[in-house]
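Design a sequence for this backbone.
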């Protein structure tokens, strides 16, 4: 082996290999690589690059806390790419670790992965069965992370169909969220999403005025636009809603966001009376490679087909809600449309538990 670069030729190439190996054994380099992996996931949306870094890091002698972080970031990347089976399998293993070691960062990760996979009741069980330190014993940074866990569970509650319970849970977190700038900036988005879906579009738009979009991580910026679109849809301002939904779709970094944008555009164009156009959006969403959650979109697809007189196809679409998002409130509605009233995804006891009752 020879080196042609001027000034480097006197040095044996083996020396460079030794130096490179030494660097890869240095814990500070491990921290830098893990930070780069996190940036790939949450700032750049470069999830495949994150997995490539994970492959390298798995060969290195990481300290236990770094290996746990690697595990989390790798699962986040799999989930964002739509590798739901891999993400859920990893989440189940990580849940054991989170409960055993009281790792709140791992608990946050597990909750997110379960929700993304439509396992809302399993996500809520993380909170119910938590054996970590009690809240008064938590350090400030740990208290913020526990607030994040409960904040994310708001999504599990409304996906179960408990919009009122979700609103109550979110309100109970308001004071705790104020001390966590990252979460407090996104707090109005969650509130606006609930308001929009309970017919309070003006209040939802007002809530979104409190969001600094530049401080929202790139991978979540599309959600701000989707939430504004949902608020405008609730107000019947369809052209504006469509523009916001398209803006969100252009910013989407996760495959779930891309699929959700298609379903949202379908709902908007259906509400505007453009049924054939809506059908194209719904079909694109239904055939998208990402199959997690999405019950509301599939339910609306069936409704659109029914309005066009295509009853058999509508029933097939409603059946997909039960197959793909079985725990959701949308699944309960789909079961009702299909005459399968026993197929309810969550009982009143589930929603009481979800609200913290």
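Sequence:
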């Amino acid at each position: 082996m020879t080196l042609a670069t001027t000034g480097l030729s006197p040095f044996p190439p083996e020396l460079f290999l030794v130096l490179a190996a030494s660097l890869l054994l240095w814990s500070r380099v491990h921290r830098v690589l893990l930070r780069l992996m996190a940036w790939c996931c949450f700032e750049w949306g470069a999830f495949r690059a994150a997995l490539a870094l994970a492959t390298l890091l798995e060969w290195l002698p990481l300290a236990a806390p770094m290996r746990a972080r690697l595990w989390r970031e790798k699962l986040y990347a799999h989930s964002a790419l739509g590798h739901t089976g891999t993400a859920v399998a990893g989440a189940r293993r990580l849940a054991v670790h989170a409960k055993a070691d009281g790792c709140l960062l791992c608990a946050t990760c597990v909750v997110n992965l379960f929700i993304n996979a439509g396992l809302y009741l399993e996500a809520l069980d993380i909170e119910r069965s938590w054996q970590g330190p009690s809240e008064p014993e938590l350090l400030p940074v740990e208290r913020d992370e526990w607030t994040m866990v409960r904040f994310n569970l708001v999504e599990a509650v409304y996906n179960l169909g408990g919009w009122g319970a979700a609103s109550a849970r979110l309100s109970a977190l308001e004071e705790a969220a104020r001390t966590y700038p990252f979460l407090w900036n996104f707090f109005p988005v969650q509130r606006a999403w609930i308001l929009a879906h309970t017919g309070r579009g003006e209040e939802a738009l007002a809530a979104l005025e409190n969001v600094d979009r530049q401080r929202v991580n790139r991978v979540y910026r599309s959600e701000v636009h989707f939430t504004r679109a949902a608020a405008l849809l609730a107000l019947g301002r369809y052209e504006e809603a469509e523009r916001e939904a398209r803006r969100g779709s252009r910013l989407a970094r996760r495959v779930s966001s891309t699929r959700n944008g298609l379903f949202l555009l379908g709902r908007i164009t259906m509400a505007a009376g453009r049924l054939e156009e809506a059908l194209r959006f719904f079909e694109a969403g239904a055939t998208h490679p990402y199959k997690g959650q999405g019950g509301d979109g599939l339910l609306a697809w069936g409704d659109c087909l029914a309005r066009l007189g295509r009853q058999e196809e509508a029933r097939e679409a409603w059946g997909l809600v039960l197959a793909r998002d079985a725990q959701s409130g949308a699944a309960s509605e789909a079961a009702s449309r299909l005459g399968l009233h026993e197929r309810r995804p969550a009982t009143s006891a589930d929603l009481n538990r979800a609200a913290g009752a």
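The chain is about 75% helix and 0% strand.
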